[in-house]
């Protein structure tokens, strides 16, 4: 074993240090021109994102949460409307629906890929459903072909919550370019991690892009002329300038994460403690057999390019003990997510109760995310894997 005594879940300084000089230059440039709200810095970052993602329009906004809110506002979704989203997701997906006055309608996920189960989306559609928000959870696209077909036949738009999936793709197209609107986050822990809060809305629809741009600045098209009420959802020029430096490296970040994920999977399989789930088994039925494969159920990419914002394994029956052990050994880890949306106190009036979403609830009790960021050293990945393997073999 090495002399490593711990591994952080995330250390954003490592990626930032590698481009420190360019970051300083970008910062100095902003200080020099003194234009801190929107302007050329934001426009050039938006154009670079649109180009990378393969969309016609990208609009910088204040956070991933605001990207979702402004997207829902642009589609005129509000009181009386229902929007379907996974119950197994980060809070912002459901919270944004609530914030515009609409009702979040939850759907269950699949046990292998952690993403929305299209059949449950279909089952939840009513005449009040106005949109569906699949989440590309942990960096892998949801089953967009099925979800797109279901939404299209119901005549409703799809908003992609691509907050964790900058650079992911499916069938050759990037997350955020697949449907009517895409939403991204530049929270420091995301794959394109910023220096504070930031987000992006993407679309190919010019009219919708204009509307999002207006809503981002109080709904005004001309100064002091407000045909609609928006908010202050602007992305800072400084943030855009700094993010533009890191955008050039976003594929390298994804490759580093992918490599670390592949190493973990190989080491767990070789040690006989883990089996990857996934592939064609990625259906609801696989939940009946998936805990018999091996003590650890490992993540698998079944939808194209997985950018591993998180490497999430499942440890049925032993998650809490494994988490405590890792903590003791100085290994950062986290549970995403311990409580699904249908069991959150703020959504209690929606009537959700334990047992309503069996897959999501099972996942909440089994999942554990381990360090996977691209600047981990080989020795650190080995240390994390060794620590987990030793625990699984003796407990
Ligand atoms: C991070 C995240 C968001 C919200 O992004 P913020 O920039 O933190 O507001 C929304 N949805 C998902 C799935 C996320 O992971």
Q: Can you offer a commentary on this structure?
A:
With 395 residues, the chain is α/β, with parallel strands linked by helices. It has 13 helices and 13 strands. The strands form five sheets. Strands 1-9-8-5 form a four-stranded mixed sheet. The radius of gyration is 21 Å and the shape is globular. The two termini are 20 Å apart. About 2% of the residues have low confidence. The structure holds pyridoxal-5'-phosphate.
Which blocks of ≥5 consecutive residues have pLDDT under 50?
A: 283-289
Ligands: pyridoxal-5'-phosphate
Q: Radius of gyration, Cα only, in angstroms?
A: 21 Å
Q: State the secondary-structure class.
A: alpha/beta
Percentage of residues assigned to helices = 25-40%
Strand fraction equals: 5-15%
Strand order of the largest sheet: 1-9-8-5
Give the count of helical stretches. Answer: 13
Q: H/E order of the elements?
A: HHHEHEHEHEHEEEEEHHHEEEHHEH
General shape? globular
| Average pLDDT figure | 94
How far apart are the termini? Answer: 20 Å
Major sheet characteristics: 4 strands, mixed
According to DSSP, the number of beta strands is 13
């Amino acid at each position: 074993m090495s002399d490593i005594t711990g591994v952080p879940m995330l250390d954003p300084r490592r990626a930032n240090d590698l481009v420190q000089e360019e970051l300083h230059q970008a910062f100095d440039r902003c200080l020099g021109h003194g234009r801190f709200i929107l302007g050329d810095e934001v426009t050039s970052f938006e154009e670079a994102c649109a180009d990378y993602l393969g969309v016609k329009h990208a609009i910088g906004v204040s956070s991933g949460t605001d990207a979702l809110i402004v997207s829902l506002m642009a589609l005129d979704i509000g009181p009386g409307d229902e929007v379907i989203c996974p119950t197994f997701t980060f809070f912002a997906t459901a919270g944004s629906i609530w914030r515009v006055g609409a009702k979040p309608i939850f759907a269950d996920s699949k046990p292998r890929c952690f993403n929305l189960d299209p059949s449950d989306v279909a089952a939840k559609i009513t005449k009040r459903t106005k949109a569906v928000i699949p989440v590309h959870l942990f960096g892998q696209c949801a089953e967009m072909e099925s979800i797109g077909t279901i939404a299209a036949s119901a005549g409703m738009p799809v908003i992609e919550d691509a907050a964790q999936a900058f650079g992911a793709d499916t069938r050759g197209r990037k997350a955020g370019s697949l449907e009517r609107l895409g939403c991204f986050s530049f929270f420091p822990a995301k794959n394109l991690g910023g220096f504070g809060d930031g987000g992006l809305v993407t679309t190919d629809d010019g009219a919708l892009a204009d509307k999002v741009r207006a809503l981002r600045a109080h709904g005004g098209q001309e100064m002091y002329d407000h045909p609609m009420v928006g908010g202050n959802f602007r992305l800072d020029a400084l943030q855009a300038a700094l993010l533009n430096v890191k955008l050039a490296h976003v594929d390298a970040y994804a490759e580093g994460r992918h490599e670390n994920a592949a190493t973990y999977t190989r080491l767990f399989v070789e040690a006989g403690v883990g089996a990857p789930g996934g592939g064609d088994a990625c259906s609801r039925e696989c939940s009946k057999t998936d805990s018999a494969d091996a003590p650890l159920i490992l993540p698998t990419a079944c939808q194209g390019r997985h950018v591993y914002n998180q490497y999430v394994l499942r440890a049925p029956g032993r998650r809490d003990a494994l988490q405590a052990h890792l903590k003791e050994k100085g290994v950062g880890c986290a549970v995403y997510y311990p409580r699904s949306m249908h069991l959150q106190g703020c959504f209690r009036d929606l009537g959700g109760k334990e047992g309503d979403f069996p897959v999501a609830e099972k996942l909440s009790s089994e999942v554990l995310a381990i360090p996977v960021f691209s600047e981990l050293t080989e020795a650190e990945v080995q240390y994390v894997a060794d620590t987990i393997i030793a625990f699984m073999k003796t407990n």
